[in-house]
Amino acid sequence: MSAWGIVLIVLGVLLLICLCISVRIVKQATAVVVERLGKYRKTLEVGVHMILPFFDRTSKPISLKEIVADFKPQPVITKDNVTMQIDTVVYFQITDAKLYMYGVDQPIRAIENLTATTLRNIVGELELDETLTSRDTVNTKMRVILDEATDAWGIKINRVELKNILPPKDIQDAMDKQMKAERERREQILRAEGEKKSSILVAEGEKEAKILRAEAEKTAKILAAQAQKESLIAIAEGESKAIEMINSAQPDAAYVTLQGFEALKVLANGNATKIVVPSDIQNVSGLLTSISEVIRNDNIAIKAKTNDSFNSEAEVVDTLASSSTNSKSKTNSIGDDNTDNQ
What we know:
The chain is an alpha+beta fold. It folds into 3 domains: 3-63, no CATH class; 66-167, Band 7 domain (Tetrahydropterin Synthase, Chain A, 2-Layer Sandwich), CATH 3.30.479.30; 251-334, no CATH class. The protein has 9 helices and 10 strands. The strands form 3 sheets. Strands 2, 3, 5 and 6 form a 4-stranded antiparallel sheet that branches. Strands 7, 8, 9 and 10 form a 4-stranded antiparallel sheet that branches. A two-stranded antiparallel sheet has the order 1-4. β2 (30-36) and β3 (39-44) form a beta hairpin. α7 (253-268) packs parallel to α8 (284-304). It is rod-shaped and about 190 Å long. The termini are far apart.
């Protein structure tokens, strides 16, 4: 083989090597920065690209996907001088590969330090309780501040989250005791409310029971009164019919006198202090007057509440005996008069 043939073969191999070196394939969601003789030349996006061998130098592929950076816990002091450990998670995305390459050295470390200082500034304005309950506020403020600061680096901060907030051990113990006391207080409140409702229900039940008992007693008294009314009406009607029957029978003087003695016998068993017996026991009107006097005397005796009922009964017996004697003497005198007249 001649010398020219060897030269051509060597040139072909070199040309093939240069062609392979000059070809760059950029994958999806990545970017490549090209420098020519140490100066920024261009940014290669997705696809196949040609560069000048030995003069152009390409950087490592830069990922344009969203990146999650989990930073170590940082000591933070709150407004009320409580030191606690807070670790954060930052979600960011590279939007400009050129600014990312030339904007800051070690961008991830820069974001971590910026996150720590921003977190200290924000939490330093809050007390412990506010810090524990204001995570959303802290996250929003940090995202705005970090996004504004990293625009010059070609980085977009999408979200910032406080992963853990770890107060000191003594603060955690105090918080546990407080939480336990709060739970016990809620338990006591719930128990008191339950007892209150139970007492109310019991009182309402007793109230309804008393109302029902009162209504039952009322109904019973009404029925008893109606029964007594009907009984009195029936008795009165019976007595009225008896009187009508007696009147229709036209009783003689002996029958009337006998009924008067029966009435006096009943009255004598009462509490009357005295009984007035008319001289003319055969006269019905006189008998009625005697009964009225006895009833009036009975009422006076009941109001006075005297205890000499025994003496009264003795006086009644004597009175009845004398009345009976007078009646017999009058009857005998009447019989003698009738005999003389005959």
